[in-house]
Amino acid sequence: MPEVLLLRSSRHLGGIERQLLDHTLRLRAAGWQPYLLCLFRGPGEHPLVTAARQHELPALTLPDPQFWHGSAWRALRGLLRQRPHAILHSCDYRSDIMGGILRRGRRHVAESHGHTAEGWRMAAWNQLDGWVLRRLPAVVGVSADWAATLQRHGLAADRCYIIGNSRTILPSSPPPSPVSLPGAGPHLLYAGRLSPEKGLHVLLRSWPQIRHSFPGARLWIMGSPAPPGYARRLRPGLQQAGVHTIGYQPDIRPWLLAVDVVIVPSLRETWGMTAFEALCAGKRLIASAIGGLPELCRNAPHAHLIPAGDAAALAAGVRRVLRPDFPHGQQAGQQFCQQERFDPERRCQQWLAVYETITP
Length: 360
Fold this sequence. Notes:
About 40% of the residues lie in helices and about 20% in strands. Strand 8, helix 7 (about 200-215) and strand 9 form a beta-alpha-beta unit. By secondary structure, the protein is an alpha/beta fold. It is globular and about 65 Å long. Strands 3-2-1-4-5-6-7 form a 7-stranded parallel β-sheet, with helices on both faces.
């Protein structure tokens, strides 16, 4: 049976991991022999490995104390030597780099979900990842915009493919109860990294205009603390009336159920997980018309796109989506989520076709 090693580096069981688990199950059902390998900087087993073993899938945690630590590299090199004919499918910059350096002619396809811009260290890793990607036999971008970006940076077009995320990226468990929010609202939600490319500063700049139109409006900001330099830039905006920071939350769904509008003011965005979750929940969405967001928001009447970085357009967008006639609700969310392009089996078949292109 054909073998594929699926290599992921992360710290939790999030959307990409849920999708990877579903893909692994579908590979097994299609007659492939998949193996999940998880680089993990934490105690015990990676949560994806624990979940995979519940389905009797072969999965292994590779302890990864730091990037150049010898133990993780030795363990991965040993596993690659044990299965010299298996395809390597890496899923992030860290696994791309390690797999690309160790592959030695092996068939290797990278699943690229984009690059972040969180300081000079991340910029250096992005450069190294790009160097590796340009040398692989196949690279899959999660959106057409990101695939085009990779090609502009030197990736050959005939080795670049586009396969979007599927709805298995969403949690499958029953949704929890909504959180209880004070005041009449409207309630707006920002959820994502607090880093410059996510555009939170644009939203905060628009807040006085939004409060002028809706004096009872409240903004809820979900995410881990910002890097020090950006945190100083955000501080005055975060101190405005009606703005609340709630930190990292392991589950966005209680907040999605409670708020009226979700805002994704990104200045760069490869795909847009928060936007996808909001649209599938039937929430009114305001998102920047940049990166993969216009592609994601196609056939979503409850989405409103604005020019990236335009605070005035953002405030006007809030006024527009809060009109009584603006589409939203559970039915809109279900119709959006059930589109064929988000079908997990379709995605698996697309991946099998990519595997075939690099199979001699």
